[in-house]
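A reminder before we start the practical. When you read a complex entry, don't treat the lines as separate problems. The point of joint prediction is that each chain is placed relative to the others, so the output describes one connected object in space. Small molecules and nucleic acid strands, if listed, are placed in the same frame. In the example below there are two entries. Take a minute to note the order of the lines before looking further.
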Amino acid sequence: MNMEMILKHFEAAAINPKGQLKEYIGKGKKAIGCFPYYVPEELVHAAGMVPFGVWGSNHKTIEAAKEYFASFYCSLAQLNLEMGLDGTLDDLSGVIVTTLCDTLRPLSQNFRVAVPKIPFMFLAHPQNRRKEYGIQYTISQYVKIKEKLEEIAGHPITDADLKASIKVYNQSRKARREFVKLAGEHPELVTPIQRSAVLKSACFMLKEEHTQLLEQLNELLRQAGPSQWAGIRIMTSGIVADSPGLLNILEENHMAIAADDVAHESRSFRVDVPEDTDPVRALARQFGAQDHDTILYDPEINKRPEYLVKLAKDSGVQGVIILMMQFCDPEEMEYPSLKKALSEAGIPHIVIGVDHQMKDFGQARTQIQAFADILATM
Amino acid sequence: MSQQMNGEKKPAKEVLRGVVEQVYQNAWDAKKRGEPIGWSSSKFPAEIAETLGLAVCYPENQAAAIAAKHGGQRMCEHAENLGYANDICGYARISLAYAAEAECEERPMPQPDFLLCCNNICNCMTKWYENIARMRNIPLIMIDVPYNNEVEVSDDTVTYMREQFHDAIKQLEAISGRTWDEKRFEEVCSNANRAAKAWLKACSYCQYTPSPLSGFDLFNHMADIVTARCKPETALAFEQLADEFEEAVKNGTSTWKYKEEHRIMFEGIPCWPVLKTLFTPLKEHGINTTAVVYAPAFGFVYNNLDELMKAYCKAPNSVCLETGVEWRETICRENNVNGVLVHYNRSCKPWSGYMPEMERRFRTDLGVPVVGFDGDQADPRNFSEAQYITRVEGLYEVMEANKQQEGGV
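Here is the predicted structure of the whole assembly.
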């Protein structure tokens, strides 16, 4: 396949999760919905089922979920509930719901009682996750999830299955990290919308299928030779960055995403799982090693802002666009530290308020145009 | 602490106020002596710092006091100027502004040398304390309580909690240079249990009709159970308070000076900046608040270390929906409420996020009218007086109609 065909394939999967799901189910597979954040998808995969990312939707309106949430909750949580209520998630054989933020706590309860037809798996991660007692706690929670998945799959998950799935996932994470770098080096070949589609489609495809295509794409990008592209390279930061409306504006302003600190994107594939140990413990150690995230306790206090400044510098970006999910207090709480660190490092940034229901991009367009003008003159 | 003044015994509410004042004074005195001062979240295991003899202040209590004295908006705006969004919890904004040394005369307290954070209250607490740690460049001790989807606290969680508890002791020993004393710890636990029992007993007087108190009194007295639950004087003061309520029941008196035609549960944290406004329509319609969820939330008694761990796992925003409903419906039944007023608190996403479903359950399970209003625990900009009055009137009309239907009283 040539690059255009591969990209089209990813785009088709990214915009049609329902079709993807139907296809897997048609092949006799079961699928498990994986809510944000840090669901150990390897367990689902090892059970022979398809882990299916559920991260809101750009095509739905919040209606039924209003019966459970006042207006001041993020669109991601509300839309995940909406999709449970309106039947969109009916083909899933279960959902795994986590609770690392204050909206996910009530979402977990609301989803459990409002959508009883979908088997509900609750996952509580520890914040003191690195020390041995934290790892032990993570193991205890992962074992509970594993047992429920075994029930749904109708067979046990063996260590060998899990080790094989961990390999598949490590390969996928590696390929996605490489793609992020290559896409940043070749904005003439990968637009912001295509970049998003490549990463988003991983939520709706079996990782081995996704990796196989992505490695081909990465190889083609590697062969492409030095880029002559003369636009502006930026870094994005936020929860999601898959709005075609917004990504189009970046393209219109000759901006390319050379690095990201987005939960739906790089934050989810930064850390690999060790392959040399008991596999459930390995998954717990991976969570213990997760870091630099607004929803995770940072025992080293200043590590996140320092990490992001380094990421921005190492990626050679000219500025940072913070896509601030409306009503996301962890992101809002981290903003002043990030702002200070970026300012001290001389890295310009802007904040754009976003949510899945955004229809009018006028203000965002003005902000991005102005930012592009500033960066172009620097 | 002396309970005598001019030969007369001070009323319990004054004694209780004095206990809280002493907590702040102890912190100032300790600071002066050069000892490290802590800031603690309201349901961090207070037994640890108390055993080590360390003075601790409580930013949530401070924020509520500042908000009640009308400094909330000014402090919130100060935090917003530092880059904190107005979507963030009002207590957190006030506290962050104070940590950034915003001028504040309403409830001063010494700046911290270490932080004690427990996210059983909410996840926002984690980032709030991390931000203070960054601002002040001070150590943060974190006890993490994972959210519980079940009624019981699992053994895995108890083990995780116990390990963190011991780790927190080690960290605080290192910070303070003090040594853990098991015997002192037992005394402290005994004080905390006595205070909790006395607090629960005082709260239980809301069961009487008419009630010898308004539930809003409990919001004020809560400061003691939050800031001083391990101190013997707190237990004594709550025991005195219970005695006073006992006496009031006998005498037919009450701290609620108005008619008690109806009895409601006030759901959520009060809107501290507009307390008078909250009271006005309630007074006018003879609606006394006889149930608030803080009694079960902060009145926990334990018999051993594992039970202590479990107790700290149970806060309003860390328990599952069923436990939350059970807590509330129990106090509604025990305290004979005939309506529920729900505060959709813009500052508290976890709490308000359960409320629509809880509202439905209250209506079905208790058969009482339930009405919600939009407000905020600390930022007056999120409260609309007109909406509040309309909602309370709506609640009153249904309660009144129900009463007529039942044949009146």
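Discuss with your neighbour: Residues 182-204 of chain B form the longest helix (23 residues). What might explain this?
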